[in-house]
Amino acid sequence: MSTAGTAVPDLLGLVAFGELLAFERMAADARLAPDLRRRVELDQMAAAEIDNYRRLADRLAALGVPPEEAMAPYVRPLQAYHDSTEPRDWAEVVTKAYVGDAITDDFIREIGHALDGPDRALVLDVLHDSRYAEFAAAEIRLAVADDPRVAGRLSMWARRLVGEALSQAGRVAAERAPLTALITQAERIDVPELFARLTAAHTARMAAVGLNN
Amino acid sequence: MSTAGTAVPDLLGLVAFGELLAFERMAADARLAPDLRRRVELDQMAAAEIDNYRRLADRLAALGVPPEEAMAPYVRPLQAYHDSTEPRDWAEVVTKAYVGDAITDDFIREIGHALDGPDRALVLDVLHDSRYAEFAAAEIRLAVADDPRVAGRLSMWARRLVGEALSQAGRVAAERAPLTALITQAERIDVPELFARLTAAHTARMAAVGLNN
Predict the structure, then answer these.
(1) What is the ipTM of this complex?
(2) Mutation target among A19, A26, A36 for the B interface, most CBs of B within 10 A
(3) Nearest to B27 among A28, A51, A71 (CB)
(4) Chain A residues contacting B, CB < 8 Å?
(5) Is A141 exposed, middle or buried (CB count within 10 Å of its CB: 0-12, 13-18, 19+)?
(6) Which secondary structure element, helix H or strand E, spans residue B156, and what is its range?
(7) pLDDT over threshold 80, residue A95
(8) Cβ(A158)–Cβ(A206) under 8 Å?
């Protein structure tokens, strides 16, 4: 293990379980697609998550940590996030995918710098393919163009997604001290500043699809 | 198109949408796994389905048929099958995966012989990886060993799965004449005989995991 103690498997376990759950939920949400073309697109977006999962699980195994063990602490909070944010229609599905993937990517990019060598390269490499973000963004714009009142509803929905994610992130941070230390020590990251950066990027993304934060 | 008219895209569309739905449903069912190791195993079983979907969709595209168009006729019957067979627990999840994949494979193998050249090779090549069947079989045996009364419940469940599948297959056969003709013309397949062979294989598989048909 190149970086400090259990923090690296902790981080890889978090990202790995995040990918696994995103995979399951997106695949389940695909049934809400208004047509087969969109349904297939979301299924393929989901499938990309499990490809990433596999790479992270392989790395954990190479570090001598069973992936199940590294992921276990995150089952409850990540499950709670998804259970409290069940999309009710296609517009909510694509907004959740758009918001969730992007915040995950921003977070991974920030903490990737806290890692060394192969872990850093791996983590920075599992960022999501931007063509899926473009697909989700285009679907949101279409829904908003179709009915301008949708913008208000989806803006509220996105705030709920971020609120629930932050609430679970807070629980994880409190329970996983080495992980939190790793994140905060990364290039002397200041937590309020990290949050400010993540929020600013999120706000810009919301504006890009006609939603407000 | 090598084999007769619309029958080949019809068949590829059927198998492709079957794979896509199996992918979505297995991924959604993974939440019922009793632990993370099994959950990951089912997720990977699901992911294998979308790999197959992609190959079938690529072949359809190469034949000049949009995959969405070829799959459209099967959305309703396959969705109806899955909606009427929602597993309630892990034992039902693995039994459904075991029964469903195996009958699909038997069916594909039978009708694969009705195809020519690349279509035949492709269809015979998307048969499921036997390691997943072995995983599902082992899980069923474990559930039965754990509580012998489970055998009765899962036997009934498997009969329901087959009954619902046959009921939907009957609808498809009635609505898709060229597909039915392709299947029945394959080496002069006699439909009652085909059913008898599929049933015999299913009965043997049930016995292999301690269930009865």
Answers:
(1) 0.86
(2) A36
(3) A28
(4) 20, 23-24, 27-28, 30-31, 35-37, 39-40, 43-44, 46-47, 50-51, 53-54, 57, 67-68, 71-72, 75, 79
(5) middle
(6) helix B149-175
(7) yes
(8) yes
What is the rounded CA–CA span in Å between residue A165 and residue B141? 39
Low-confidence ranges of chain B (pLDDT < 50): 1-4
H-assigned helices in A32-148: 36-62, 67-71, 75-83, 90-112, 117-125, 130-146
d(CA A126, CA A115): 14
With an 8 Å Cβ cutoff, the interface of chain B facing chain A consists of: 20, 23-24, 27-28, 30-31, 35-37, 39-40, 43-44, 46-47, 50-51, 53-54, 57, 67-68, 71-72, 75, 79
| CB contact at 8 A, A28 and A197 | no
Over residues A190-212, the pLDDT tens digits come to: 778 888 888 899 999 999 999 98
For chain B, the helix, strand and coil percentages under 3-state DSSP, each to the nearest 5: 85, 0, 15
Distances in Å between the Cα of A59 and the Cα atoms of A67, A107, A119, B101, B175 are 9, 19, 8, 30, 49
Q: What's at B47, amino acid-wise?
A: A
C-beta of residue A103 within 8 angstroms of C-beta of residue A198: yes
Residue with tokens 């790999």: B51
Distance of residue B192 Cα from the nearest chain A Cα, in angstroms: 33
- Whether the model clears a pTM of 0.80, i.e. scores above it, the answer is yes
